[in-house]
Amino acid sequence: MDENACRQWLNEVNWDMIHEDAVTMYLEWGNNNFKDTLRPPVTSSKEYSIYFVVDTWGEPKVVLNKMNNYGSTALCEKTLPRDIADRYMKEIGGLRGIHELNDEVKAWIMKEMDMDQG
Predict the structure, then answer these.
(1) 58 and 101 in contact (C-beta within 8 Å)?
(2) Residue 2: predicted pLDDT
(3) Strand pairing partners for 61?
(4) How far apart are CA 32 and CA 25, in angstroms?
(5) What is the pTM of this model?
(6) Cα-Cα-Cα-Cα dihedral sign, residues 47, 24, 89, 106
(7) What is the pLDDT of residue 89?
C-alpha cells in the first residue's frame, strides 16, 4: 500500500458507504430512489465517493476505492493480518467478493492509517 497516496483521500472517506450503494448511486444514477440525506442523488459527473471495502476474491485485503459515474478505482490496498482475515472470512461464511468493513476491520485500518477514531 502506498500510504502517502492513500492519505491524501482519508479526510474524504465516507464510512457509511458500501460498494453496492456506490454502484447504484454512480453507475445506475437516475435508476434509483436515493433521495435522502444519507444517499443524496448524484447531480454531476464531477461527483465521487471515497470508501473502504474488503476484497476477498484473493487473500483478504482492505481497498480504498474512489467511485464516480465512470466506475471504481482502487486508490490503495492493504492485506489484512491473518488473524483478522480468518475471523472476517468466518463471519461472512467464506464468501468471495467485495464486502463492507466490519467493526474490527474498520478499527484496524483506522489504526494503520493513524486516523482518529473519535
Answers:
(1) no
(2) 65
(3) 55, 79
(4) 7
(5) 0.84
(6) positive
(7) 98
Alpha helices in the chain (DSSP H): 3-7, 19-27, 82-91, 103-112
Return d(Cα 113, Cα 1) in angstroms, integer: 11
Query: Consecutive sets of 10 residues in the chain, 118 residues long: mean pLDDT of each?
Result: 77 90 71 62 82 97 92 93 98 97 96 77
- Using CB atoms within 10 Å of the CB of residue 72, give its burial: 0 to 12 exposed, 13 to 18 middle, 19+ buried: buried
Q: What are phi and psi of 24, to 5 degrees?
A: -60, -45
Indicate if the alpha-carbon torsion angle 85, 90, 95, 100 is positive or negative. Answer: negative
Break the chain into its structural domains and give their ranges.
Answer: 3-112
Cell triple for residue 39?
444517499
